[in-house]
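User: Here's a chain of 90 residues. Predict its fold as tokens.
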Amino acid sequence: ELKTRLMSTVSSKLETVDRIPGLLVEQVTAPVRFTQAVQGLLSDGVRTFVEIGPGGVLGGLVKRIDRSVTAVSIGTPEELSAAEASLAGS
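Assistant: Prediction complete.
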């Protein structure tokens, strides 16, 4: 059975979906370990990062950690369509 896993910036580990509610509560009070989370994904071979939401702050931070990766920020439905086309071609 394939389970969706998400990177937590609290634990800096890939977590199963059932752990996310508790981790979101922790994220309010715990330090965020964004750099460690990105480095963990990089060591697992991730080379493309997609940020969903307004602005591109996290994509910019990812690029500061490793300039060789692709960081895509999506804030509108139009940007989603453009990113789908762009990423499908790469």
